[in-house]
Batch of 2 targets.
Target 1
Amino acid sequence: MTDVDEIRAAIAAIADEAHPPLRVRAAIDARTRHHKQRRLLLRAAGTLAAAAATGAGGVAAYRLRRPDGTVFPEITGGPGGGWLQVALRWRPDWLPEGYGVTTLGAVVDGTSVVAAERVWTPPQRLDGPNLASVALQSGWSDTYAQIPTAARTDRVDIGGVPGELSSFDTGGVLLIWQPAGQPRLSVSVGVDDLDAERERDIAVRVARSLRPDPGTFAVGPRPGSLPDVFAGQPWVYTLSAHGTMWTQSVLISNGDADLDVWASPDVRPLYDIGGSQPIDIDGARAWLDVQNHQLFVEQLDDRDVEVHTTIDGVDLPQVARAFDLGPVPDMTWYGSR
Amino acid sequence: MWLRESRMRGDPLIFEEFLAARLPALTRYATALAGDPDTGADVLQDVLVKVQLRWSRIAALDQPETYVRRMVINELISARRQIAARLRRESAHLAAPVADGTEQRADRDALVQLIRALPSRQRIVIVLRYFEDMADADIAALLGCSLGTVRSQASRALATLRGIAAPLSMEER
């Protein structure tokens, strides 16, 4: 056997250890659902420190740790703050054991907040993603709410208000109700696809435990001038974390076309920038992929930025130049209750 | 939490076909590049989630799989992956020769451990060159670096592997 054959055989031995494709496939399906959940609803720039400073009842200032080694890592953020304050309105008194806030967000229409959401998950795992989450949304946006066909729907009582509890073939449950004089509320739970009853119990228990919450958080980023096709549309702003990096995103949709902006201290472009057109965005290096409607900007206002749209004819460099990323978000809320 | 569910799923039928046909090979590919099955699966899952969300665009490319394979490499050499890989290397120990009666088996095990412990870029170059049988120029194009960089990475990797493979008069291709 030659030396090259030895190397090939050694690499093949490593490849032979690959997990079974079906197991990988199941994990992809679960992770896709989780990714959608985390992306789809609101991840807003949280400045709960500001809420606490004003005496508002924000997230409790302790970081949850568990004895099994899973933790909510410290996420290095910035001063936070922003141009728009989002009222949280409600908070649950009860959550599954060990859950902490990992996502905040809002749907913004002009200068108004249409909906706000917090997502609680178990701590990050060292061996993979969390696939469980509980989300509370206050308010509603028809533009961004497309609920799949329910496999089962029940009527439940939430403090004397009728609610509709739906479960779906793709997993997860959604509970919607609207107290008199209040915005529509919803709790979505994705904990265990194999135990829909448990998910339904959690959703109802979380909903029944809600208490008023005067806390707020701030939205930092703001789109500037936009192409006509997106101008004036409400948009979704979310802030969360991947590993130890915070990630902001703004998604603008008109129902047919999307424009999304992702920003993080360290974002890898999802395309080969080597084949893209190098350009300058306000002094930052950038790469424009005209054919695939995407732009990657390196370290613009202390963060890497990716801009993507689904349609032709959008001047992505202009979108990036006009986009106000706002201050680096505060992340001290991450992992708190 | 359920926004735009159907549209973000892309085209499930075509993506399903791609996965059904290519997932076994991609799983082995990611495992070999990563040097361990857990990282390989984790990276591949991350990538395929992104692929699924953007499938309509990726499927329109001439060679979607090439694009996906490039994404796997990009993900492997991303900053956060590098941190995890460094921690893994620091905790990696060269296996002692296995007393199973075959010296060849012990050499193979030791070589496997050395390949696992290579810096990510070096291991990627070695895997692409010797497992995927790619030419250095193609590797350079895939990694977005110069031909010289590929060869220097390969040279360093081979120098490390020579620690046990020198008696086999290993030569660079």
Target 2
Amino acid sequence: MKDAAEFGLNKTPTQLHPVMTQSMIEGYEEFPPHAEYNAIDAFTMRKNYIQRSEQLGAVPLPSTLSGVVSSGAQAIQGNSPSALIDKLGERLAFERSGVRLYDALITKCRAAAPDLDIQILEQFRDDEAQHFALVQECIVSMGGDPTAQTPCADSSGVATMGFMQVLNDPRSSIPQCAEAILMAELADAAGWELLTTLADEAGLSDYIDKFDQARRTEDHHMYTIKDWLERLTLNNELEEVE
Amino acid sequence: MALNIYENRGLPIDKQHLTWRDMVQVPISKLDDDAFTRVRVILMNGIELESIQFSRACARMNKELQLPLAQLRRIDQHQATLINWLLGADHSPLETTIAYEQVAIEVTAAVAQNDPDPYLAQIYRFGLLEDFDHMYRYSALLDRLEGKDSNNILQSYTDVLPGRPTIYEHRAPEDDLRECYDRKKAQPLTKMHALTIMSGEQQTWNYYMNIGPLFSDPLARQLYAEIAHIEEQHVTQYQCIMDPSETWLEKWLLHKANEVYNYYGCVQQEKNSRVKAVWERFLDYELGQFHVVRDLFEQHEQRDAQSVVPAELPELIPYESQRDYVREVLRNEVNLRAKGTAFVDISEESVASKTYRQRLHADGVPSEIVALNYIWMPGGEVNKIYPSTVSQLQH
């Protein structure tokens, strides 16, 4: 059972090694830090890179913006169509990864007993897939290519790499996995909220309600997982979570 | 009881099989396992990787040996996979870096104290103070970049203090060359030590060169570039100390003996029973491989393998904190510099190295920038804001 961890022989606390730790601290009296070079500090060095850096990449130009007209493209009235495409690309990637996050949690729950309600997890996984399809449809309607990876999709993918690592580690517990999913769902709900605002500003009237509905669904996921996590943590009894 | 390498024939190589499931086992626990278990895992991966690299070079130069080299190299590949995969994915690349430096410090310090050749012992002490400083720089990076305490990896066995400042470690290539041991006169322990330390440093070079680009932070990217450069210097230094007049087969025999020697040391000192079983299994493998090479050696060179590798293995490398010794070396030798193949006082350092270094450092020195005024404290530097934890520990 992948239940919460229990007390054991964790070797990381310094209190396990009081004499050696004290010696480490006192070592600085004899061997203090000394600067051999201070012409550039960390901020100056990083500022130099930040100011001279290039971006992660460009937002792929939709065919509509390069002259090919589609019904969706005419709806774009916002000040920053590239931001809309970029954020759509991000949601697309996030939802697709969300499917895989739930796949991993479902696998773990199936392998452990007792487990979370797998039917609910499967529903959530299917919701993520549906949201992926919704964003895909929207991008296509605007003349965009849903196979492209936009800069925000790339950045978001980097940010969420840790979720995958936690979910797919055979050693991680169900509560640890639920925690990772919760972080993803919190970001997802906020992401849909922002996307709905962007769609509204861009005049994508066909999608405002659909995006808002997706946000409500993600809110439901988030509160459900949050509730499960609380009950897992407070009661430490997986059987009670349904 | 000492292991007689000629009486123990180990497992025949045609029975040395691993499945994917064998190779990918449950990793060690970053939190619960003793730091020296991880030290051994990293070192033995390095030993296997060196065996593979040597085997490739040997195969390029010796057509008639290509088949047995390929056969043994394939088993080494499987062994390296199993061992390296024992590191769990909850180690960040930077945390693993801390572990690599712990290997370099603790193993080199142990070797430096026990090597019978005073010149080689000096070389190890020299390299030791440089790796010791890397630990300090990387600990500062881990704390200041990821907000993590390197001592979660070190478990208080190894100091986090400035050593010979990394800024002074970059030298002209001619100052990284060293004299070698004499293959006819050197003691077996000297040969085992040289191969072991060279393997560890080469592995570290490989690791830093591979993971440096994984960091987004430019300071981290520069620090890995800077320290990987020192690792190149260290590999240059350590590969010099092995006698180049050893024949290919002699070197191959020594590599296999060194693997037996190190696995035996791991078996003797490992506390984790699951990992110990791996060491025992691979000790058996390496004994089997040693005898394959022994037969080839005696067949091709018409001389007794015992003229190169004695029946009984030399004194094993101890896996324990070398804090007092390292500090003593730091006290006495921090101002040593390398000049050609000799070690001199800082005042006599070569113009070539000084000039070389100035060019590298012209746009800033990451090892200095990252560790400016850094003092390790339990739980990390953020404790400066709420210092109660530290003051409690100090009483």
